[in-house]
Amino acid sequence: MPYAPTAEIVAAAVGAGFGVAAFNVIGLEHAEAVVAGAERAGRPVLLQVSQNAVAFRGGRLGPIAAACRAVAAAAAGPVGLHLDHVEDEELARQAADEGFGSLMIDASRASFVENVARTRALAEWAHSHGLWVEAELGEVGGKAGAPPLPAHAPGARTDPAEARKYVAATGVDGLAVAVGSAHAMTERTASIDTELVVRLHAAVPVPLVLHGSSGVPDDELQAALRAGIVKVNVGTALNVAATAAVRERLTDPKVTDPRKYLAPAIEAMAAEVERVLTVLG
């Protein structure tokens, strides 16, 4: 089955009562691993390219987008493309032309008023180009190497009353919320405030998104889904799995062909994707 719009994948997840996972893609190997794992699990999936990944690739969205489109087109099940954590308006406006079905506008570090203004303007443009739009209210810490925010620091939790106003003012289709997770966690020790998720779910009419899910234990993740989370973002867990596989293979000093260590890295990532999708099911 070829590429599927994010809106359709998310709507199907909401209707069936399961979570949809978006996995960060840095290179072709990531995309291939994500789709392989999704095919094994028999589940739809989102290939997610962040602004940081685009910067790593010399600021060029086109090549990595083309790779994701090709992998999605050859997949056995529904695969969508999502452009994540976009702060650069110029980059955001490339999303539709490059085949993405959705983007996440990230103005979470700005004031509430500025966040609303920037998000609303880009959301209007994105909707006119057929894109599903996600945004963030409350700051999920750990981005770009920054330390996670303390649990009760200003901005470390999304306020339900503010969330209601924010969604109404911006017109976004999905809301990333700060409820206890953090980006770039290599250990699964995060504790999700499920009572807050329940309140946020009741406050807004759009699906809730959990960033930093690599650091969330399985039981906490499943509790978050029951409480109202729909889209789950995973990145670091794939990199941890891939790096461990590469390190193990490179203990042999005779290995110089990249295929010899990339193959086990892809397999390790695919296995992690399958595991996460099973948890979300």
Topology summary:
Blueprint: H1 6-16, E1 20-24, H2 28-41, E2 45-50, H3 51-56, H4 61-73, E3 79-86, H5 89-92, E4 102-105, H6 112-128, E5 132-137, H7 160-170, E6 174-177, H8 194-203, E7 208-210, H9 218-227, E8 229-234, H10 236-249, H11 258-280
Parallel strand pairs: 1-2, 1-8, 2-3, 3-4, 4-5, 5-6, 6-7, 7-8
Written description of the protein model:
This protein has 281 residues and is α/β, with parallel strands linked by helices. The protein has helices at residues 6-16, 28-41, 51-56, 61-73, 89-92, 112-128, 160-170, 194-203, 218-227, 236-249, 258-280, and strands at residues 20-24, 45-50, 79-86, 102-105, 132-137, 174-177, 208-210, 229-234. An eight-stranded parallel β-barrel has the order 1-2-3-4-5-6-7-8, surrounded by nine helices. Strand 3, helix 5 and strand 4 (102-105) form a beta-alpha-beta unit. Helix 10 (236-249) runs antiparallel to helix 11 (258-280). Mean pLDDT is 90; it is low at 149-154.
Q: In what range is the share of β-strand residues? A: 5-15%
Total strand segments? 8
Largest beta sheet: strand ordering: 1-2-3-4-5-6-7-8
Envelope shape: globular
- Listing every helix as H and every strand as E from the N terminus to the C terminus, the arrangement reads HEHEHHEHEHEHEHEHEHH
| Helix count, DSSP H or I runs of 4 or more residues | 11
What is the terminal-to-terminal distance? 20 Å
In round numbers, the mean pLDDT is 90
Stretches with pLDDT under 50, minimum 5 residues: 149-154
Text of the CATH class: Alpha Beta
Structural class: alpha/beta
How many domains, as an integer? 1
State the helicity in percent bands: 40-55%
